[in-house]
Amino acid sequence: MNEFKQAQELYDQQALCYAEQANANKKLLDTRKLVYSLLSPVKHKKILSIGCGDGTECVSFAENGAKVVGIDSSSELITLAKNKYSELGIDFLVMDYEETSFEEATFDGIISIMSIMYKADLTKVLFELKRILKPHGSMVMVVPHPVRKMIKYAHFDYFASGLHYETWENVTRYNYYRTIEEYYRLIKASGLSIESLLEPKPQLDKPYQVINNISEHLYPHALIFVLQKD
Ligand SMILES: C[S@@+](CC[C@H](N)C(=O)[O-])C[C@H]1O[C@@H](n2cnc3c(N)ncnc32)[C@H](O)[C@@H]1O
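YS: structure for the whole thing
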């Protein structure tokens, strides 16, 4: 089964439950706000969200005057997104972010929040996203911070990149784990430039969840790249 179908099957099975968990997760909600702030002002801009889930991450962009398109592998999540947010004028489509049907230089901005780790060939994905970005367009790419795995799993080998399985909120999902050095190398190879790199400190209400004796607010959960096309 190809990776798109695999992701589709995975997220179709748990669409409602995933959306509920995601929209109740303070760290993810803060990440969405930060991603919005990194691309704002967005008035009259064309923004694409890849792996948009139930579409909630698109809302602040649409409410502030952007023309927004959200794509996802899961038809169940796209149906949810259409039901919730179509009246905001957002277009939601089932589409693979590795091979989109958009014309070259369509978008001013692209966001990817915890969605780019489902493909083995990240270079191919980045070339496709660069193709559909306008010149000087920006992309905000959020991936799980690799240090999380060191905290979560005893004896985890930081350097063991590749296909991993990980349980989040009681559901096991596959993803391609990469080190920071690897992300840097793959981004450079795509020809996109790195404008900034962020490791936001989780702002959590007490009591913090403690994993392996380490409170969640003491390490970064997301690694955020702001990329630009020349
Ligand atoms: C962890 S969820 C993140 C969803 C959303 N960005 C959020 O933060 O709530 C990953 C999403 O990526 C989507 N996805 C995975 N592979 C994809 C692909 N090749 N093309 C489009 N979407 C994909 C999944 O269906 C899923 O909705």
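YS: worth flagging: The first strand starts at residue 46 and ends at 50.
IM: good catch. Also Residues 4, 7, 11, 22, 28, 50-53, 57, 71-74, 77, 96-98, 113-115, 118 surround S-adenosylmethionine (CB under 6 Å).
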